[in-house]
Write a structure and sequence with these properties.
The complex is a heterodimer of chains A (about 325) and B (about 625).
Chain A: E1 2-9, E2 12-22, E3 27-30, E4 33-40, E5 48-55, H1 61-82, E6 94-98, E7 105-108, E8 114-115, H2 116-119, H3 125-145, E9 147-148, E10 157-160, E11 165-168, E12 175-176, H4 210-221, H5 231-235, H6 238-241, H7 259-266, H8 280-298, H9 310-313
Chain B: E1 3-7, H1 13-24, E2 34-42, H2 50-59, E3 62-70, E4 80-83, E5 94-97, E6 103-105, E7 114-115, H3 128-133, H4 136-149, E8 154-163, H5 167-183, H6 198-201, E9 205-206, H7 211-235, H8 244-271, H9 283-291, E10 294-295, H10 308-313, H11 316-326, H12 331-345, H13 355-360, H14 363-370, H15 382-389, H16 391-413, H17 420-445, H18 453-480, H19 486-511, H20 532-542, E11 550-552, E12 569-575, H21 579-582, E13 591-593, E14 598-606, E15 612-615
Parallel strand pairs in B: 1-2, 2-3, 3-5, 4-15, 5-8, 12-13
Antiparallel strand pairs in B: 6-7, 6-11, 8-11, 8-14, 9-10, 12-14
Helix pairs in contact in B: 1-2, 5-17, 5-18, 7-8, 7-16, 8-14, 8-16, 11-18, 12-17, 17-18, 17-19, 18-19
The chains are: A alpha+beta (about 325), B alpha/beta (about 625).
């Protein structure tokens, strides 16, 4: 069906209209989000293929708006941080979004990879190193953007075997550092204790994703097995590979190493990390103010999420994070 | 070509004409030629459709036309009036179905008929007669029988049916059964493939003249010399000190040879190391290994030949997997065994074994052997002296070092050893095959409702060997042309499997269920044998006398128009599935159908002379202008 899509490209300015063809077939792309293929008319025969994410219909649509906001925020933040270096290849790329209308959406470039759930057991030896580097680089990008993915798992992390690339997908539960953690339902294999519904506490921070990432490393290393006990890290050679640092991932979030630590002090390799702009706080405040304004226009009366401003107005202090005083 | 059906039933003249044009007009996209055309029409509308039949006739593009006309003769007419190109001595054959629900009737002059049990078919296209005539083999035989043996080429059809399964659905269902056997999760892990272990696959050995063998030989030679002297000395009253100096010379030389061996072993482990075991040896490293006196033979490396797949089949991995698959192991446990093997054969680099040097040949031993300070006991046995001098330990250490080097050579350096990547690729190929097969089975499950489970199961069993050949074909293809990555191997195997399944099902559609696909060899696909019980009903139906009670597709009032004295053509039919099991059937050869789900007999009872009249206009239908007689 031929139509016109009005949206803002992530790399440029105001809203614009683009002729597009939309697929009728929809598929789930995250919590409370549906996706469909769209082809923007770019002068080529097939058009530019993108994946459009939209909130689900029905009584969960309100949650869908929030998930979509998360995806847009993460995508735009990553784009800003990457700056002239281009969008990080380890992250599915946001192409553009429309967040102000009653039918908001985000457009992502298609991901040619496969979920690790399907292909982890088939990675060849040299691919493991590429995976490791890609995963930790991707986490470093997220840390640079001040974003935690929060739902890393073999389903949301893809492997592009043609290009030897890791790719994080589904940012629908992502959150900026400093916001209060919201509970994440899901398998305990992939949700750290501090984010599980029963034991959720503290603020989102740069070590939130490393817990699931370390389990992913074992998952790939062991060709598709979940990490049962920490003894397996030594058996699999990972303990030695990371010079004992990987075990420390499975502690309270405040004590965990970051992705950068794992690269520098675990693997003992040099690394390239994205640098965060110095005016991060200012940029965030302006951006979020504009976001809330647009949101209010689209969804009048929707309350501002709790702790929305916490990370930019009052950055988390060292040791802070467990209001109940609980640990793991 | 299949049978083209043109249904004019219920269509007014204009509609019928439109349907015919759509079919016959080349300019509107119609086919160049129609080999078999089955026209279904209402008896009451035949006159109204005259133009259509004329059009068909004038188009000259239909090779064989067969008309099924349904319903009673119009009005109170006693004649069955047909368009000019139907019936008669030159027209196309017509089957007159006076009443689709029919009657059960024994072919006698008695006009007594019974109600046929069961509901009438809801629509004409679902009528068994139409389904039967839509099968090319049946269409041809019925057409021929009418042309050759039915007066005026118009007959009333009678059926005797034995229930039978649709061949395509039965095959798909049976293949799903076979797939479940081949893709079953299996009993659990049996452990790695012993034949793929480095010790058996690596083929490493010390060459006879290389430095490693030389040092090892020198240690043993000096040990022998020392032992010979010790024998002599212990024979002289056990006064060992008397020949100590000579013994010491040999012990020292043994120590020096052992030190050389240890040094060379250390050099090899260090310099032929590939970091983490990831990557290949350099040319220099291969030279170093060769010059140290290691050889890997040729076992396990397929010789290059014109057919890469044939070469792949010589590989150890192929043979191991083929042994398991053809031996009855399902794919998942074979994949698990490959992974268990992969964990064992995984390389870590030869430098990781350097710590073993101290265990097998402690530096303290070398010090003892080469030390001048160590004195022989004054008296003692030969064994005690050897022990004191460290000769036993020296020989054991030399053997231990040689074993270590051969072990490392097999695990880390052997070009013949099975690599982790190769095992992963084969596992991926099995995984892709399994996924494609599971997809096929899941689709087939939706369409097998009408087929018999017992038959599916038996045929499925016979398909298992062919399916295993398909699996091994995929494995051979992957080994012959390795994919760039594991996920690619998975994808490629999935695609290949889908292509091969499509080829197989297509072949079965063309040639029957026993058709051998190109990837199958031997008699695997020929194993399908039905069970006599299964075909007993079909045999009975095929042997039914033509005049016995059958389902005659006419109204009771039409029976008087049937000529029971004239020879009645009969056509027996059954699915190709049952041909072998049925064996020889007395009488005419049945039509072995490639599709459809019936077996039995179709009888074509001719009409009494004069009942059917062929004409292009109602005026010509007068009795005097036709070659017919009045109905009695």
């Amino acid at each position: 069906m031929a139509d016109v899509l009005r949206f803002r490209r992530v790399d440029g300015g105001d809203h614009d209209e683009f002729p597009a063809r939309m697929d009728d077939v929809e598929f789930p792309v995250g919590e409370f989000l549906m996706g469909r293929t769209v082809r923007l008319d770019d002068g080529t025969q097939d058009g530019l293929q993108l994946i459009q994410h939209r909130p689900v219909s029905g009584d969960r649509r309100q949650q869908g708006y929030l998930r979509l906001d998360n995806e847009i925020l993460a995508g735009r933040r990553l784009h800003e941080v990457a700056g002239g270096a281009g969008y990080p290849t380890e992250v599915v790329r946001l192409y553009g979004d429309e967040s102000t209308s009653a039918d908001p959406f985000a457009l992502f470039e298609p991901d040619p990879g496969d979920p690790l759930r399907d292909v982890a057991e088939y990675l060849l030896n040299d691919a493991f190193d590429q995976f490791l580097v890609g995963l930790l680089t991707g986490l470093s990008w997220l840390a640079g953007a001040g974003i935690a993915h929060r739902t890393l798992s073999p389903d949301t992390v893809h492997w592009d075997s043609d290009n030897g690339k890791v790719r994080f997908t589904d940012f629908s539960r992502s959150a900026p550092f400093g916001g209060a953690r919201t509970p994440i339902a899901g398998s305990w294999s992939w949700v750290a204790r501090e984010s599980r519904p029963e034991t959720c506490y503290g603020l989102v921070g740069p070590t939130d994703d490393i817990w699931a990432a370390a389990r992913l490393i074992y998952f790939v290393r062991s060709r598709g097995k979940d990490l049962g006990d920490l003894g397996k890290l030594a058996e699999s050679g990972l303990s030695q590979m990371f010079n004992g640092l990987l075990e420390k991932v499975f502690t309270a979030p405040e004590e965990r190493p970051t992705a950068r630590d794992l690269v520098e002090y675990g693997l003992r390799r040099p690394h390239i990390l994205p640098s965060l702009p110095d005016d991060r706080g200012k940029w965030l405040i302006e951006g979020r103010a504009s976001f809330l304004k647009a949101r209010e226009r689209a969804h009048p009366g929707v309350p501002v999420p709790p702790h929305f401003w916490d990370d930019v107005i009052r950055p988390p202090q060292p040791g802070e994070g467990d209001p109940q005083g609980g640990g793991r | 070509m299949s049978v083209v059906v043109l249904s004019l039933s219920g269509l007014p003249a204009a509609g019928a004409e439109q349907a015919a044009i759509a079919l016959l007009d080349i300019d509107s996209g119609g086919p160049d030629r129609i080999e078999r055309l089955l026209v279904i029409d209402d008896t009451t509308l035949l006159a109204e459709h005259l133009d259509v039949y004329e059009q068909i006739d004038n188009a000259h593009r239909v090779d064989k036309l067969l008309c099924v006309t349904v319903g009673s003769r119009p009005g109170a007419g006693r004649k069955l009036e047909l368009p000019g190109n139907l019936g008669g001595v030159q027209g196309s054959p017509v089957l007159w179905v006076g009443r689709p629900a029919g009657v059960d009737w024994k072919m006698t002059k008695s006009l007594v008929a019974n109600r046929h049990p069961g509901p009438p078919p809801a629509t004409l296209d679902k009528h068994p007669l139409i389904e039967l005539l839509s099968v090319t083999e049946m269409f041809d035989r019925v057409h021929q029988a009418c042309m050759d043996g039915v007066p005026d080429r118009v007959a009333s059809p009678g059926l005797w049916l034995a229930g039978e399964d649709n061949e395509a659905a039965t095959f798909a269902g049976a293949l799903a059964v076979a797939i479940r056997r081949v893709c079953d999760p299996g009993p659990g892990l049996e452990g790695p493939f012993a034949e793929l272990m480095p010790e058996r696959a690596g083929g490493a050995r010390l060459t006879e003249t290389g430095p490693l063998t030389r040092y090892l030989g020198r240690v043993r030679e000096q040990d022998r010399e020392a032992s010979r002297l010790l024998d002599r000395l212990t024979g002289l009253g056990g006064l060992l000190r008397r020949g100590e100096r000579e013994v010491r010379v040999h012990v020292t030389k043994a120590g020096e040879a052992l030190a050389d061996l240890r040094h060379l072993a250390d050099q090899l482990l260090r310099d032929a190391d590939v970091a983490g075991g990831v990557g290949d040896l350099t040319a220099n490293q291969r030279s170093l290994i060769r010059n140290a006196g290691l050889d890997f033979g040729s076992e396990g490396s397929p010789r290059p030949g014109p057919d890469p797949a044939a070469g792949a089949e010589q590989s150890r991995v192929y043979r191991a997997v083929a042994g398991a698959i053809h031996g009855g192991d399902p794919i998942p446990p074979v994949g698990e065994r490959l992974m268990a093997t992969e964990r064992v054969v995984g390389r870590q680099g030869s430098a990781a074994y350097r710590q073993e040097l101290d265990v097998r040949c402690p530096p303290a031993l070398l010090a003892v052997l080469t030390s001048d300070e160590q004195k022989l006991p004054r008296r003692g046995s030969r064994a005690e002296a050897r022990h004191e001098l460290g000769l036993d330990s020296a020989v054991a250490a030399a053997g231990g070092l040689a074993d270590l080097i051969v072990t490392v050579a097999n695990r880390e350096w052997s070009p013949a050893a099975v690599t982790s990547d190769k095992l992963v690729r084969v596992k991926a190929a099995l995984g892709g095959t399994s996924r494609a097969l599971a997809g096929f089975a899941s689709e087939a499950a939706g369409g097998q409702g009408s087929t018999r489970a017992a038959r599916r199961a038996r045929l499925g069993e016979s398909l298992v060997p062919v399916l295993r050949q398909l699996v091994m074909h995929i494995v051979a293809a992957e080994l012959a042309s390795p994919s760039a990555s594991g996920p690619e191997a998975l994808r490629v195997a999935k695609d290949r499997t889908t292509v091969m399944l499509t080829e197989w099902t297509g072949l079965v559609q063309d040639q029957g269920v026993t058709a051998q696909p190109s990837f199958a060899s031997g008699s695997g696909g020929d194993a399908w044998q039905g069970i006599e019980d299964d075909v007993a009903g079909i045999r009975d139906a095929l042997l039914r006398p033509v005049s016995d009670e059958m389902w005659q597709l006419c109204a009771p009032t039409d029976l008087m128009t049937l000529d029971v004295d004239a020879p009645t053509a009969s056509i027996r039919f059954a699915s190709r599935l049952t041909k072998k099991t049925l064996g020889s059937i007395p009488g005419d050869e049945p039509v072995w159908t490639s599709a459809g789900s019936f077996a039995g007999v179709l009888r074509l009872v001719p009409l009494r002379a004069g009942i059917a009249v062929s004409t292009w206009s109602e005026a010509e239908a007068e009795p005097e202008s036709s070659s017919t007689a009045l109905e009695p």
